[in-house]
Amino acid sequence: MVLLVHHPISPFARKIRLQMSEKKMLFVLREEEPWKISEDVYKLNPAGELPILLNDGIVICGNYAISEYLEETRNDVSLIFGTVEQKAEIRRLVDWFDNKFYREVYRNLVYEKVHKRFAAGMAPDSKIIKIGLNNLNYHLEYIEWLLEQRQYLGADTISLADLSAAAQLSVIDYLGGIPWEEFRNAKIWYSKIKSRPSFKDILKDNIRGILPTKHYANLDF
Amino acid sequence: MVLLVHHPISPFARKIRLQMSEKKMLFVLREEEPWKISEDVYKLNPAGELPILLNDGIVICGNYAISEYLEETRNDVSLIFGTVEQKAEIRRLVDWFDNKFYREVYRNLVYEKVHKRFAAGMAPDSKIIKIGLNNLNYHLEYIEWLLEQRQYLGADTISLADLSAAAQLSVIDYLGGIPWEEFRNAKIWYSKIKSRPSFKDILKDNIRGILPTKHYANLDF
Q: What is the pTM of this model?
């Protein structure tokens, strides 16, 4: 049995869920709150971070190790593909969204609005939110630029770069505030990703205590 | 020709330099200051981050893409090896040092002491330094724990996990303050890594405006 320890607020867990679904894998989910990591999670992953994959007793920890492990073991559907240069381009963009977007947008918006509240009962700092929103615009511009070069973000077909990006954006979109109308090509791209069977489960996500924005689950938003 | 755009303060560039040297690759270095990224660098890497690899006109950006690219194209010396589970363990620890150690130790110590000074002429915040030093102790404990399980951090022979860890630690060690005497096994391990031919170049590193601590280049420290 394949089990993923996750939380709907975790973009990295969302990415792995999308990757497994694209590979038509069956898996079950176990939810753990990232702001209140349990002893059980620390036993599995001493880093105390999500996601964690349990595959028939084998434990694989963290977004990087899990995504490469899935590429190696379930390669009938490949999400890092092509020549070594094309693979490097896909990984460059995975890194962009997993690290740069995460640090510049996710941390400023989602940590402020959600983690701070649940972890410490604190209100968000509007200055930090503003920085996050400015950065979001810049990243949406970059997505538009990439879509002028190719059909999807990392290549002309869907790759792990799209899943990394959509995973991050889907958490932001749950909370609302993405100026989709100003970024038409990014919107068309996200709408295509949203319509994939692998995304169905993500659109049903529910972060306890926070309602999704109205259009969150709409394919035509 | 292989060229790496780097800076001696960048742990990720150090990691790639170590990886290329372990693979007996010949390469030249070009230094760029991370606190004053030039237009040239942005043209190569829109993320504006180091390192950047130029391999006969092919540009590969960022630590993740470069390290996997080198594993794929120069596989006579493998640094991510073994069964898929062993590879996942190596990658888990690469992630640990590239992300967790970087965030919890490097950002608090090196950003405060070096980046803040060169980027903004600001003095370090002693509270942040203290947090970084506390976290450093915890990470050294974890290194000791790993070395009770195996000869090197990720396996019984040297792997990318050791290079990631040693790259981060070597920048901290340049500035001084690692309590090596309290972590004997970590010290023995670091001394082994330091003695490798691949490390020679790192020990000659010079961060302009900052002298290395006395023992930095000593193999017997």
A: 0.97
